[in-house]
Amino acid sequence: MRFDFDTPAVRRGTDSAKWDIGENELPMWVADMDFKTAPCVELAVMERAAHGIFGYNTFPTAAWQRAYTDWWRIRHGFDMKKEWLAFVMGVIPAVSSSIRALSEKGDKVVILTPNYSSFFHLIEGNGRVSAEVPMLLSRDENGLRYDIDWDALEAALSDPASKLMIFCNPQNPTGKIWERETMARIGEMCRKYGVIVLSDEIHSDIAAPGHKVTPFAAVNETNLALTATYLAPTKAFNIMSLRTAAVCVADPDLRGKITGSFGDIAGTNVFSAPAAIAAFSEEGGAWLDELNAYIRANKDRTAEFLKAELPELEAVGPSDATYLMWIHTGKIAENSEDFQKKLRADTGLYVCPGVWYRGDGEQFIRFNAAAPRVLLDDALERLKTGVRIYKAGK
């Protein structure tokens, strides 16, 4: 491999939200990788910093637009136009602003559960109602999996109070890559009932070798017309604090409503565009390919460890995207938050309790596998110890 993902970086004492924890604790919770970013991104930031002047900055240039359009065409088969793009400081503030622009207080926002916890805060914090549609958990020859409850989804979308649907592609917390047919069916339902889709695709570049995430808007013309897509290099290149993201909206009327609401969140800093341009380059792509292979190996290693050492736990699949794993704990714990708290207290392993993600999350924990292998192996041994202690105390 050209790039080093095995050597742990020292993150304590660096104002890291992930690592601002107890001395003997090991964080495998928030979606923040324990890998340095791609060397080309680091170099771009350092070169810009060397200029020494950090005054007011212009909005991203044609080079920034070209980096996005080229990357999504080549990587994801999405032929977006530069006019469709708007720069924003982050996906979360952009989704929040879009909710306010496209709905009124008391309106409903449809969302499949379990789902990324911040979305519920955005919906409800803006005075809207989370119309939660639990996915169906089942078992096939490959193990546990989720599928959409189509009757429940149509019932939610057909409610006249439902104005928006937040779609997480690939799915967080499960790592599921949605099939084109599934997204086409959702898009047709949304067209039928006049629901706009806000598609979060911030994890779309983290996909196992041999797999590709298709943007929701790229499925067909129907989806393209009713979708706002939220994009960023931040998760894949571990540069969240650089505050660089984009919103892509093909329909001009919809784009005008959304971008007109951005205000201050449309600002940029001097590192935002150079970092994104470097990430979405040939060198950035080479680094990403190796990262994705490493993450795939980590997720496989974790699943195999569970089967061999912790058969009481089971990872939901297929989890071919993101570096997150959704692990079923229902056989040993009635409430995942109680288990998570005891696991942290007894072993120092810090994971996310599934209740944060609603749906049937009380039976799950979310585990972040994006770490050097020595840290991953430490985490798995702590998990094993924690399960033993938890079972002994029941």
Characterization of this structure:
- The protein is an alpha/beta fold and 394 residues long.
- The chain folds into two domains: 26-37 and 286-393, Aspartate Aminotransferase, domain 1, CATH 3.90.1150; 45-282, Type I PLP-dependent aspartate aminotransferase-like (Major domain) (Aspartate Aminotransferase, domain 2).
- Helices cover 40% and strands 17% of the residues.
- The protein contains 13 helices and 15 strands.
- It has helices spanning 39-49, 62-76, 91-102, 117-125, 150-158, 180-193, 221-225, 234-237, 252-259, 272-279, 282-309, 336-347, 373-393, and strands spanning 26-27, 85-88, 108-113, 129-134, 136-140, 143-147, 162-168, 196-200, 227-231, 245-249, 314-315, 324-328, 349-350, 352-353, 364-368.
- It has a seven-stranded mixed β-sheet, sandwiched between helices.
- Helix 1 runs antiparallel to helix 10 (272-279), helix 11 (282-309) packs parallel to helix 13 and helix 12 packs across helix 13 (373-393).
- It is globular, with a radius of gyration of 21 Å.
- The mean pLDDT is 97.
